[in-house]
Amino acid sequence: MHSSETTDIFLFNPTCEYAVANGQPFWQANRLLLKMEADLATLPCFFANPYDIILTDKIPSNEFVESFEPFHFSMPQFFQKDEFLRKTFSETFGINKLLPWGWSPAAHRLLSPLKQYCSDAFKQSPVFLWNPENRELYSKGFALEILKEIKSALNFDFLLPENLITEKCTTREEIERLMLRWGKVMIKAPWSSSGRGLQPITKTPVHEKVWEKIVGIIKAQGFVIAEPYLNKAADLAFQFEFKKGKVEFVGISNFTTDKKGQYQGNYIHGIPDNFEPDVVEFAEFVPSVLIDPIIKILEKSKLAANYEGNFGVDTLIFRDESNKLKINPCLEINVRLNMGLLALYLEKLVSPEKKAEYRTYFQPGISFYEFKTAMQKKYPARFLNGKLESGFFALTEANENIQFGAYLLI
Prior knowledge:
Blueprint: E1 7-11, H1 16-22, H2 31-39, E2 53-56, H3 62-66, E3 77-80, H4 81-86, E4 95-100, H5 105-111, H6 120-123, H7 140-153, E5 167-169, H8 172-182, E6 185-188, E7 198-201, H9 208-221, E8 224-228, E9 231-243, E10 246-257, E11 263-268, H10 277-300, H11 302-306, E12 309-319, E13 325-334, H12 339-346, E14 356-362, H13 368-378, E15 382-384, E16 387-390, E17 392-394, E18 404-409
Parallel strand pairs: 1-2, 1-4, 2-3
Antiparallel strand pairs: 5-8, 6-7, 6-8, 9-10, 9-12, 10-11, 11-14, 12-13, 14-18, 15-16, 17-18
Helix pairs in contact: 7-10
């Protein structure tokens, strides 16, 4: 993430899109999402160097830190968030960058006491202050503009055809028209993440409660995004980083979602062997022709001048009516750190010739500790040369009060 030995400060706030949509500096997530942020707060440690700092609600236990010893992995420092933000530091206290999972007016307000100690380079970067105009860049509406530009710049027959391009809708009637055209439809809140704020419409007549939810999103956020419910073959994300208006390609992450579109996890070391061979071949070929044009389009976009840091472009590989593989090359743009990028960093914990899964955990009524205990019995971890060779490994703290977790499984 950086070269010289100055400290970066990390904060896990995956609800940043909701905070951006709301726009208020004092916005707070609901109880369940706050619990998720607290339970998973240590996750940025995999991006960090030993001299970096992770702000968490609770300091992780020694037992948790020691569980990483088989990897020869040096943990960064953990500080209790509220306490750290109330501290006064001497002028010599040097921070390189502030690195929340994602920026929002609320993240800026929270981290503002630390800004005076940041490096000059960071003070000059476009993310040092929040610009209200940036709200649009975090919405699925911006991703739609980029999708249209990719479509007009490239004439590949494997790209999503014109009649299946996502649309913005502000009324129930517009959605009903698309249902006539597409049959099944996926409705998305413009600002949301990890597959929350999604409403599939697969049956007619549509239940009134579903319409209430959709109309509620339109009232709150101004519009919804409607896309055809496609016959999905695979999810791919291209990971990039913006530095001084230039885009660097970081890697490709393969992820998995459930039937409702909610994020479940990532594959480590490529697509699993049980995927259909034509899907694997298509997924390996597509980046070679798409990544450079996407970079050029993004460097000309408003994002180039207004953002610095990591971001991911989610794509969707699907089968059309005649069973041909096609791709939506820009389903969404996650203008933040993201689980796919994290999965690329986790590759270094896994034996290079092994395929693994990185997954997040939540089951109401069953703590992450209970789950971890059962999984460790069933799949004991084996290590070889400082890498996970097989079994289950918990990546976040587990105790009776923890509901959310993250883990590796081979």
